[in-house]
Structures are given as C-alpha cells and as structure tokens.
Amino acid sequence: MMTVKVFRSPARHGYAVEVSPYIPSRVACAASQYYGIAGCGTLLVLDQTETGLTLVRSWEWSDGLFDVAWSEANEHILVAGGGDGSLQLWDTANHSAPLRVAKEHTQEVYTVDWSQTRGESLIVSGSWDQTVKVWDPALSPSLTTLRGHEGVIYSTIWSPHIPGCFASASGDGTLRIWDVKGAACRLAIPAHKAEILSCDWCKYDQNVVATGSVDCTVCVWDLRNIRQPVNQLLGHTYAIRRLKFSPFDKTVLASCSYDFTVRFWDYSRQQPLLDTVEHHSEFVCGLDFNLHIPNQVFLLTSIFRHIPSSVLASLCPLRVSSSFELGP
C-alpha cells in the first residue's frame, strides 16, 4: 500500500533530491524560483516521520540552486551548486550562512557530487562554462580544472569503484571518463546525437555507465566496448532529466523525464521496461534511491503555473513502501 505525505514550499521549482547516506529518513532538495531563470534558491533538508515530512532546516541563496550532494564523511554537511557559479558548503547544525562559498566557475554550476570511495574525499562540479572542477571538502581553491567538453556540462558522477575517477555528460552529446590524478580525459564516448542531461555509474560493475538524453533514450554502456550500447531503453517521449542505478539490483535503474513519467528498467532483459509511474502532472526533475530501504525512491517534480512548487514522491505500490510529495 502506498502512502503520500505532503510538505508545502510555495514558489519553488525543484531541481535535485538526494537521500542522506547516514540517515534513512533524511533528504535534501535543491530548488529555485522561476525555473532558475531569475530569483533566488532554497536548500531544504527534510525528515520523513510516520505522520509526514518535517522541515529540519532550510536556507535561502541569492541565486537558483540546481544540485545538492551529501558529504560521505559527515552526516551534517552538504554541498550545493548555484546559478551564480558558486558552490556552497552547508551544515545542518548551522542555522544561517554557509560554512564556505567557492566561486570559480563563470556560469551556472549544474551538478555536484561527493566521492564515495574509501580513503578519498573529493567534490566534483560541472558547469555551463564547459569546465569540470575538483575540490577538497573544505572548498579551498579547486585542485584541478578539466576541459574537453564542447557544450554545457549537465551531470558529473564519481565512480563508486575507482578512486579519482568520474564520468561527465554534456550538451555536446558525449560521455567522458576522467582521471583526476592524471588530470586527463581517459575516454570520450559519442553516446547520443543530442544533449545528454544525466549519467550514472552502476553500483555493482565498474565498467557500466548509463546516459539519459534529450533524444528520449537511456543508453547503457560497457566502457570496455563503446562501439554500441549494451542496451538502449526506449519509452520516454520527452527529454530524460535524470537517471539512477539501483543500489540493490545490479541491472535495475530508474529514469525521470519531462514527459511527466518515471520509468524503471532492467537493462539485462530483452523487454527491459519494468514499470511506468504516471503519478505526476508536471516535469519530473529529481530522482534518488534510498540507500537504506530497498525499492524506496524519492522523486522531485515541479509545477509552474500561478504558484510554482516542487513534488517529492515515490514508486508505485508494486515496488515501494511509501511515497512523498513536496507540493504547493
């Protein structure tokens, strides 16, 4: 049985949601006014309770916020990326200002990620200025700036397997694999003939990465053989905004789209589509699996009519225990 819980945050368009790696009930949401075109941004931290969603902390930022990532070393710390080219380090125990702000990018920071491999704590950011930057957790001056993409960068994701290795996806239609130590692009894959808005690394196989594109397809790639994808997942009718691999099933992933749907896939099957959730009436922009609770997924959607809002929801009853909404 699926339950729905609502948290109201008016005049905000949701961009990203991420579940805490430490606290199963906690999520962070990055949001903006007016689709990030103008106005400010809000970072929300929410806790799921038996009766609903509780606001733990919220902060306002002078520009839109487009992505958020939890620290892998401290349960209180988050990093967010802003439309003013900044990264901000936030502490849930701090009620007011960010701990630190770094502003080296010259355009919107659209993606941030915190490394997950042992013995390493790094942040990667991707920007519309076509550069990727790698930072230490204190957001001191960036450790390196990587260039190579010929379009805006929409997604950067650390390998959960290989230290100092991350993937990036760009409006230039390529997926790139980077080596931080060598400060070099090790692999460039012409993955789509349209902009790529999202990529993710399989949690169980260091050679498997998926991409989601404006061409409405999800492609699953084996980095050892990039001549063609392992599988091309068809079904969405508009651009794929974000995708994530399941932390519990090796070949399962989820994708959300501007077609208002969320789809669940098993790329190892000949008929890979497992389910389509048509719960939403607006764009679905954010997506994350709960690392602690099998088959629980958080989704962030947005309504932009008279009162913009964000919606946080979950899977259909077949595959999830509960669902969440962040609405007007």
Task: Throw out a few tags for this protein.
328 residues; mainly beta; four-stranded antiparallel sheet; 29 strands; globular; disordered C terminus
Oligomeric state of the chains in view? single chain
- What portion of residues belong to β-strands? over 45%
> What is the structural class?
mainly beta
Mean pLDDT: 85
How many strands, what sense, and barrel or not for the largest sheet?
A: 4 strands, antiparallel
- Kindly, what is the distance between the CA atoms of the first and last residues, rounded to a whole number of angstroms? 24 Å
Strand order of the largest sheet: 2-3-4-5
Determine the number of helices (DSSP H or I, runs of at least 4 residues): 0
Please write the string of helix (H) and strand (E) elements: EEEEEEEEEEEEEEEEEEEEEEEEEEEEE
Number of strands: 29
Roughly how many Å is the radius of gyration?
A: 18 Å
Helix content: under 10%
Uncertain residue segments: 302-328
Protein name: Peroxin-7
WD repeats: 102-136, 146-181, 189-225, 233-275
Pfam family, one: WD40
GO cellular component, one term: cytosol
Textual characterization of the structure:
There is one protein chain. This protein is mainly beta and 328 residues long. Helix content is 0%, strand content 51%. The chain contains no helices and 29 strands. A 4-stranded antiparallel beta sheet has the order 2-3-4-5, with no helix packed on it. It has a 4-stranded antiparallel beta sheet with strand order 6-7-8-9, with no helix packed on it. Strands 10-11-12-13 form a 4-stranded antiparallel beta sheet, with no helix packed on it. A hairpin with an 8-residue loop joins β12 and β13. It starts with a strand and ends with a strand. Its main location: cytoplasm. One of its GO terms (biological process) is protein import into peroxisome matrix. WD repeats lie at residues 102-136, 146-181, 189-225, 233-275. One of its GO terms (molecular function) is peroxisome matrix targeting signal-2 binding. Keywords: Cytoplasm, Peroxisome, Protein transport, Repeat, Transport, WD repeat.
